[in-house]
Design a protein that fits this description.
The complex is a heterodimer of chains A (351) and B (282). Chain A has 351 residues and is of the alpha+beta class. Chain A is built from 8 helices and 20 strands. Chain A has a 6-stranded mixed β-sheet with strand order 6-7-8-3-9-10, sandwiched between helices. In chain A, β4 and β5 form a beta hairpin. Chain A starts with a strand and ends with a strand. Chain B has 2 domains: 55 residues, no CATH class; 214 residues, MetI-like fold, CATH 1.10.3720. Chain B has 15 helices and no strands. Chain B is globular. Classes of the chains: A alpha+beta (351), B mainly alpha (282). At the A-B interface, β6 and α2 of A face α8 and α9 of B.
């Protein structure tokens, strides 16, 4: 078991640089999730750790070993692909044992390890089936089993749940979390789904266009984002952003029809800023400032989609028995301590 | 626009369709029917000029027996088998490897090499007749089965490579990456993963190449002569000399020669059609 260290890792395709100097420390046994919008370089980064993409510059260490220029096979990693990548002509058992068999392990040992993995993943009844005869969730379990069997130092998951339907995704998410608790190996997991990131990760790495935006524990990122991108990306529904301007020691926000007093060092007057408010920190009160455009009732909570007089849209979470209806005219209140302020130009948090 | 079922057409159109279809079918098959009828006629019918009339007697059994026991036909048939099967095996073995290399690896010149394999298919092979014949003579391969096999393999590998490379390209690349991460060597990836998955392509291509090679006449005539090495397609012309022009024997021989690919087609029809479409669609 060992951690993974990335040291100023750069990836270039010809003249196009897609990963710009990533520094990252993933501890032994940690569950690390790379998250970001598509094209942000998260899969490329994972594939560089796996050795499937060459690292143009920088250094990758797994444990104490420098693996930057090693073949995938020598790195002691196992990878689970989005498309499962099961060998279609082999049974579940053969699929799981293939890597060991090719590397000359005795068949007794292979069988033992396959049995062990299949009992962890509840695949015992399917060992003789071909991948074609399995459901999506079962296929993904086989793919995970194939990874477990080899007892790798690091597990790599490349969007493993994206091909599954919503219900199975939740089920497999729990399964992967359980697996991590059970084997306690280092895992790196790539996803664009921030819910998966929030629920699985010990450490989330938010990436945007080949750069790390922020690294931290899920709730730290949620409560204390460094910039507007992370604030908007983590959390569902996303944080509301309203344009504002600093004026006389406070922030004027036309979208709220309010001037907000904030307990932080404000930049110079006239600076354009964004006020960030999470849906659950807003409360609907009687008033005249916003129009309810749409509501989504999910049961325990409802989301009210509001339009401000400036045309800006907000989402507000509502609980309790009194909920707004489409067409209502309402006001908003919130605790200014909960609000976050971002510079419009640099998108950085103003603290 | 769409091919509507004929049952929905007007009665006049239906009648026209139903009469024209058998007529065109007979026209289409006329040469074959003529050969089939010739093959059961006695030789005397041709000397008396009874080409198209009713056979004066049915000599089918005699003709076909003579083809097998009184001519070089068995020799020629054996030659055909001995040429076709190694060619199919050789072309497939080579094209599986070239297809894997061109389909899986990204290297400088990959596309150029692939392009040359394809471009070779567009060269009309007739213009190669004289140089290839000279080359076989220089190599001492003229009028040998080995020479014919070698040149067939060389010419078929281009098309086979195109087919195999496209098939391998269409396979999910993650399969190969998954195996690489598992520490499987490239040669084992080829042998244990890619080859088994390619079985349908191999089956389709072998049927296709079998018929191509069996039916080849051009290279058989250019590169071989006589029963020592000539395959059956060229061999049947020997009836011209051996029995004067023994049309009945020639016809019987032709039918025998045509049977293996026809049988192959009907037995492996599924693969044959797959062979025509696999490369195109995938």
């Amino acid at each position: 078991m060992s951690g993974v260290t990335l040291n100023n890792v750069i990836k270039r395709y010809g003249n196009v640089q897609v990963v710009h100097g990533i520094d990252l420390q993933i501890d032994d046994g940690e569950f690390c999730v790379f998250v970001g919008p598509s094209g942000c370089g998260k899969s490329t980064l994972l594939r560089m750790v796996a050795g499937l993409e060459e690292t143009t510059e920088g250094q990758i260490n797994i444990g104490p070993r420098d693996v930057t220029h090693m073949d995938p096979a020598q790195r002691g990693v196992a990878m689970v692909f989005q498309t499962y990548a099961l060998y279609p002509h082999m049974t579940v058992e053969q699929n799981m044992g293939f890597g060991l068999k090719m590397n000359g392990h005795p068949s007794r040992e292979i069988q033992e390890k396959v049995r062990e993995a299949s009992s962890i993943l509840k695949l015992d009844d399917y060992l003789d089936r071909k991948p074609k005869a399995l459901s999506g969730g079962q296929r993904q379990r086989v793919a995970i089993g194939r990874a477990i069997v080899r007892g790798p130092e690091v597990f790599l998951f490349d969007e493993p749940l994206s091909n599954l339907d919503a219900e199975l995704r939740v089920e497999m998410r729990v399964e992967i979390a359980r697996l991590h608790n059970e084997i306690g190996a280092t895992m790196i997991y790539v996803t664009h789904d921030q819910v998966e990131a929030m629920t699985l990760a010990d450490k989330i790495v938010v990436l945007r266009s080949g750069r790390i935006e922020q690294v931290g524990a899920p709730m730290d990122l949620y409560r204390d984002p460094d910039n507007k991108f992370v604030a908007g990306f983590i959390g569902s529904p996303a944080m509301n952003f309203l344009d504002g301007q600093v004026a006389g020691g406070a922030v004027t926000v036309p979208g709220l029809d309010q001037t907000v007093q904030m307990n932080l060092t404000l930049p110079a007057n006239e600076t354009r800023v964004s006020l960030g408010l999470r849906p659950e920190h807003l409360e609907i009160i009687p008033g005249e400032t916003h129009q309810v455009e749409l509501t989504e009732a999910l049961g325990g909570v409802s989301y009210a989609y509001l339009v401000a007089s400036t045309g800006e849209r907000l989402i507000v979470e509502e609980r309790g028995d009194q909920r707004s209806k489409i067409g209502d005219t309402v006001g908003l209140q919130f605790d200014p301590a909960r609000a976050m302020l971002f510079d419009t130009e640099s998108e950085a948090r103003i603290r | 626009m769409f091919p509507r079922p004929i049952q929905k057409a007007s009665p006049a159109a239906q009648i026209t369709y139903k009469t024209l279809l058998p007529i065109s079918l007979i026209l289409w098959l006329l040469p074959l029917i003529a050969v089939a009828i010739f093959s059961v006629k006695p030789a005397a019918d041709f000397t008396t000029g009874n080409y198209w009339g009713w056979p004066s007697s049915f000599e089918g059994v005699t003709n076909y027996t003579r083809v097998f026991f009184d001519s070089d036909m068995p020799r020629y048939l054996l030659n055909s088998v001995l040429i076709t099967i190694p060619t199919v095996l050789g072309a497939l073995a080579l094209s599986c490897m070239t297809g894997f290399a061109l389909g899986v690896y990204k290297f400088r010149g990959n596309f150029l090499i692939f392009f040359m394999f394809i471009a070779g298919n567009f060269v009309p092979f007739q213009i190669l007749m004289v140089p290839v014949r000279d080359l076989t003579i220089d190599l001492g391969l003229y009028d040998t089965k080995a020479g014919l096999i070698l040149f067939h393999v060389a010419f078929q590998t281009g098309f086979c490579t195109l087919f195999m490379r496209n098939f391998i390209r269409a396979l999910p690349y993650e399969l190969i990456e998954a195996a690489r991460v598992e520490g499987v060597s490239e040669i084992k990836i080829f042998w244990y993963i890619v080859l088994p998955i390619m079985r349908p392509a191999i089956a389709a291509l072998s049927v296709l190449i079998f018929t191509f090679i069996w039916n080849d006449y051009f290279w058989a005539v250019v590169l071989t002569q006589g029963p020592g090495a000539q395959p059956v397609t060229a061999g049947i012309t020997s009836f011209n000399a051996q029995f004067g022009v023994a049309y009945n024997m020639l016809s019987a021989g032709s039918i025998v020669a045509a049977l293996p690919p026809v049988l192959m087609f009907f037995l492996m029809q599924r693969h044959f059609i797959a062979g025509l479409t696999l490369g195109a669609v995938k």
